[in-house]
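Submission checklist for the structure archive. All mandatory fields must be present; incomplete records are returned to the submitter.

[x] Identifier: F-box domain-containing protein
[x] Organism: Ficus carica
[x] Residue count: 439
[x] Sequence attached
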Amino acid sequence: MAADLISQLPDHVIHHILSFLPTIYAIRMSLLSRRWRQMWYSIPSLKFNDYHIKEELFINFVEQCLKHRLMGIRGNTTSVITTFELDITRCRVESSQVDRWLSFVAQPHLKELHVEMGTFYSRSRPRYCLPQVALNLISLTILNLGYLDLQDCSQVNLPCLKSMSLTFVYVEAEVLHNLILGCPSLEELLIVEDRFFSSNLQISSSNLKFLHVEGDWERIQVDARNLESLVYRGRTSCDFDFASCKKLTHLSVNGGYFICDGRFQNFISGFPLLESLTLRGYDLVDIRHQYLKVLVLVKLRDSSEVKSEVKPQISIDAPNLVSFDYMGNDALLQIVMNSPNLLEANITFDSYKNGQSMEWYVNLLNFLSCLDCFKSMSFNLYSEQGLIFPENLRKLIRSSPLPNLKHLKVKTWFKLQKESELEQALRWLSPSLETLSME
């Protein structure tokens, strides 16, 4: 009979292994060894979700697990719960029952709490209201909430909380203010909503470093003097007030709201330490920044949606810029660039139509001619056809669009079919190439 090597593992190693698993799998794993059979009683994490399980079975399973866990705690005073995850997407569980589960795990040693009570498609159902006991955990460092209500945050005490995410959580402005006020150590905040917040979003936190916001607001005001990274995604015009965020180094924002009136330049000029900028959607944008090092442009519209007289145009004056990324479904973009220290460009075209018309190749040549200062470049696209310029077009072009390019990498989503034709076209495009990689 083979030796039971699993049983010889130290307890802390077994606990570590089981803590990564949903509780139902941790229990199944405990059947692998005699010594493991009651080991899950004392693992530091409990993770429950109702995927692929009937409602009555799920509720009974959670009840029995917590009952046995209580037995484990009584038998071992050093056994504590540090992580609790509850993800209910389908089952209808009584609020009082969920309250009881949370009250059981809301102990001083709890460090991570994840509660998600639905999905995007279940928002019409009655929403669960998080009890006050979950907002008074002195050791909690991570709090993730989804598809529930926050109604009473008058007595929040989360002194060690570092990270918090609110996904489709209904919370009024004053309640949100009190919630953040009760998290003095908060460094990372994620807010995703669709219709539940008020029209104005106000966030005030002296220790906040990372902020990610998605939603429809008329005005966003952030008072966070130590903020380093800001990501904003929205669908409507929005007024921003980030005047106090002078330490911001990373910014990702929808650019469609800054249309040819100087608002965008005024916006980023308020961030003197900005090093990385991601701009999603744009028409006419002027980017001038002395310390900017990384620029990412994500174009959200194709040429069929843009009138010929208002082609997207980006003016870039960034003397310390070293990296430029472009992601879009066409090459209908004019760039005026003053960035003498540029090292690399990464170009991604995400449309299967690339290379199906002469207009595509002409637009691509015009686009690439704006990037003739680069020494290194990579392309990512559906197929190599998007870069195999027609012979008759090559004969009309007297000078190569990328005369200074030394290193080029091309990666296609589909297997290369015309490798030799592609290489010939690329060497015409960049006659000074020293290295060429095609995948």
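[x] Structure attached
Curator remark: The domain at 80-248 is CATH 3.80.10 (Leucine-rich repeat, LRR (right-handed beta-alpha superhelix)). The first strand starts at residue 45 and ends at 49.
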